[in-house]
Design goal:
The chain is of the alpha+beta class. Helix content is 38%, strand content 33%. It has one domain. The protein has helices at residues 3-21, 27-40, 86-99, and strands at 45-55, 58-70, 74-79, 103-108, 118-122. A hairpin with a 3-residue loop joins strand 2 (58-70) and strand 3. Helix 1 packs across helix 2 (27-40).
Length: 123
């Protein structure tokens, strides 16, 4: 499956979750429901995946966690904020670099329409 089709499938799943729950909940609620739907779609994923920092050839656990890593090639950061800020974009770009994953999505569930709360990132 191409990366566009794959990310579109995940976005479709997220839109389904948002249609049912709407905006206004905590990120953890969206993460749980999205995880349920990813299981139903038979997609392999990791929740709260640890992201080590490699410093001078040593892996250090600095407490960084990706909300979701799907099929080892799509990193998802979930937000429930008024708007996506530059710090959120810097966060996902750093996570992509640290994990060697080339594709990422920020999904801001605190949007009236989820499509307005989606940002794609490609390294």
């Amino acid at each position: 499956m191409s990366q566009d089709k794959f990310s579109n499938q995940v976005i479709g799943i997220a839109i389904e979750v948002h249609k049912i729950l709407g905006p206004g909940l905590l990120e953890s609620a969206y993460e749980s429901c999205l995880s349920h739907e990813l299981n139903e779609a038979r997609l392999a994923f990791r929740k709260q995946a640890s992201i080590p920092v490699v410093y001078k050839h040593t892996n250090l656990d600095c407490g960084f966690r990706a909300d979701l890593i799907i099929e080892n090639n799509l990193l998802i950061e979930l937000k429930a904020v008024e708007k996506i800020l530059p710090i959120h974009e810097a966060q996902i770009l750093t996570y992509l670099k640290l994990t060697d994953i080339k594709f990422g999505l920020i999904l801001n569930f605190n949007s009236i329409l989820l499509k307005n709360g989606i940002r794609r990132f490609i390294l």
